[in-house]
Write a structure and sequence with these properties.
Order of helices and strands: HHHHHHHHHHHHHHH
Strand content: under 5%
Oligomer: single chain
Number of strands: 0
Radius of gyration: 20 Å
Helix content: over 70%
Number of helices: 15
Shape: globular
CATH architecture: Up-down Bundle
CATH topology: Growth Hormone, Chain: A
Distance between the termini: 20 Å
Number of domains: 1
CATH superfamily: MFS general substrate transporter like domains
Largest sheet: none
Structural class: mainly alpha
Length: about 400
């Protein structure tokens, strides 16, 4: 039976987009109040970055498992399992807050990380059936729809806090109720609707193409391109998480309320995803390397604005976090495209999972170190340091990507 690749690609993108809306809400809700919940339960600022570190460590393990499940059984099985596990972890965070159990909180944050990892890996499902010159655009479509849930989540922090208080749950645990429902919904959407599985279909199409044309150039696994794409995503994740994690704490120290924090983080997460549609087109048209350079420059500008913006004002902090999100967006989409171009259908999901492990670990490192850096120096020092680090990755990625630029595979 002949497969209508274009029609199936459109259907796959629709299902991925639907799951990303729910997944974005689950991700953003926990990120917004995670540091504040830890600050409240642990009684110190020094470990305010611990929640981000824990659920990013959890996402590292989940990324590996989701990647391997997807490689063996298809995207549907791997992604659905990841989201459902993340939902269970979010419920565990709520329970931990209710009974004041710190060990349960730490374990639940690790499990919650499965949802954050899956939300990121879902972008790959949208590229399995995309043509080589449309891959970055496909990634961007999946990411841009995350904006709706990602912006909604932080802006419901106050509402969910009130809801939680009325039913006897600590206010800061309220957003994790939203995260639980959102992740569980995303998992069910993929489990029920992602049929036929795009990765399995892509393998079949590639096998048929090889049989029909024995002289067709064989796919090759380009290690240089894999390394360049993974490194770009890892470094942008490190810088973004470090600065984002400490911004709510920085704002609370300067008298901002939860509503202000939710708005700034909502703008930041919107900036992470909303530019995606344009970014994907630019990556496909201008090239992967040029957009990687744009990522480093934008993150550097974000660091400068964050460092010098008045702590008691909103405009400067919001501008810095918007630039931080845009820089991350440029780095993630260009890095993802480089990585996909460099892999084959037989190794793609597994390699993507391994790359996302490194992304998660870099985020965890950023989360852990951010609190310690701010406690030992200042928020401004953290912001400037992150910006300089982002700027330094440019020559490395340019040199390593080399021939991987616009390589593309079937």
């Amino acid at each position: 039976m002949k497969i209508d690749r274009e029609r199936l690609q459109r259907r796959t993108l629709f299902v991925v987009v639907l799951s990303q809306i729910f997944g974005g809400a689950g991700l953003a809700s926990g990120v917004t109040v995670g540091a504040l919940l830890a600050q409240e339960m642990l009684g110190t600022d020094r470990f305010a970055g611990l929640p981000v570190a824990l659920f990013t460590f959890g996402s590292a393990g989940a990324a590996l498992v989701v990647g391997r499940l997807s490689q063996r059984f298809g995207r549907r099985t791997g992604l659905a399992a990841g989201f459902l596990t993340g939902g269970i972890g979010a419920l565990g965070v709520v329970l931990a807050a209710v009974i004041g159990n710190i060990p349960l909180l730490l374990v639940s944050l690790l499990v919650y990380g499965a949802g954050t990892a899956t939300n990121l890996q879902a972008r790959y499902a949208g590229t399995d059936l995309a043509l080589p010159d449309k891959r970055a655009t496909a990634v961007s479509i999946a990411l841009v729809m995350t904006t709706f849930g990602a912006v909604l989540g932080p802006n419901l922090v106050g509402v969910m806090g009130d809801v939680a208080t009325r039913i006897g749950i600590p206010a800061l645990a309220g957003p994790f109720l939203l995260a639980a429902g959102a992740f569980l919904a995303a998992g069910l959407v993929l489990l029920i609707l992602l049929r036929p599985d795009p990765l399995l279909v892509a393998r079949r199409l590639h096998a048929e193409a090889e049989t029909a044309a024995q002289d067709q150039p064989e796919e090759t696994h380009d290690r240089r391109g894999v390394f360049a794409g993974a490194f770009l995503m890892v470094m942008t994740q490190l810088v973004m998480v470090a600065v984002m994690t400490m911004t709510p704490v920085h704002m609370r120290h300067h008298g901002h309320g939860l509503e202000d924090v939710g708005m700034v983080i909502g703008l930041h997460i919107g900036a992470m995803y909303l530019p995606s549609l344009v970014t994907g087109v630019l990556v496909d048209k201008l090239g992967r390397t040029k957009m990687a350079i744009a990522a480093g420059v934008t993150l550097f500008a974000s660091g400068l604005v964050a460092a010098f913006a008045p702590g008691d004002g909103m405009i400067g902090i919001a501008a810095a976090l918007i630039l931080l999100g845009i820089g991350w967006n440029f780095g993630l989409i260009s890095g993802t495209a480089i990585l996909i171009d460099a892999t084959t259908t037989e190794t793609r999901a597994k390699t993507q999972g391994q790359a996302d492990v490194l992304i998660a670990l870099s985020g965890a490192s950023g989360g852990v170190l951010s609190g310690m850096i701010v406690a030992g120096t200042s928020y401004a020092a953290l912001a400037i340091g992150g910006g300089v680090l982002a700027l330094l990755l440019i020559p490395f990625v340019v040199r390593k990507s080399g021939g991987a630029e616009q390589r593309g595979t079937a």
